[in-house]
Amino acid sequence: MTIYIALIRGINVGGHNKVPMAELRTAYEGIGLNRVKTYIQSGNVVFESEENAETLRPKLEKALADRFGLSANVVVRTAEQWERVLANCPFDASALKDKESIQIAALTEPPSRKAMDALEANRGESENYAVAGSDIYFLFRPSVLESKLAKCLPKLGDTATMRNWNTANRIAEMARDMAGPEGSPGN
Description:
With about 190 residues, the protein is an alpha+beta fold. It has two domains: about 1-80 and about 170-180, Alpha-Beta Plaits; about 85-165, Alpha-Beta Plaits (2-Layer Sandwich), CATH 3.30.70. It has helices at about 20-30, 55-70, 80-85, 115-120, 165-180; strands spanning about 1-10, 35-40, 45-50, 75-80, 100-105, 130, 135-140, 160-165. It has a four-stranded antiparallel sheet, with helices on both faces. Strands 6-7-5-8 form a four-stranded antiparallel sheet.
């Protein structure tokens, strides 16, 4: 079995698209996923499955629609892929100052040329980004709330969902725990 991470876009944000995590776990168990665990209310799910990511993604999205009436994109990564995302971050989290942050945008597909042009046009002196396939790393200074670069994030479209560095690491830790001391996090 492979351990997967599903990142659901746009649930439980600002009182919209409310999805109770216990009900989400039940819905995902109902489509045959194993050992389903969630982290905080923003749609982070760790689970096991014998299916591949291409098959899982539409099933996860359909379960959200069927159970909660939501049309939400889900980004799926294996635990191993997520570990690589964290390991390849080009920014030093230990060097962050107050209000600075590293965020990871996980996309269902590589960003469009239009999105990349918007990001490049809004790159500031004190903030930066780096693209690695279907993931984009952001370094926001002095904060994401004051960032010119963050204002163009909607250009990534509804195929992207963001997680801060702490959340991204906690999700990886959950996957490692699921794998156990002698297990592998997945393919």
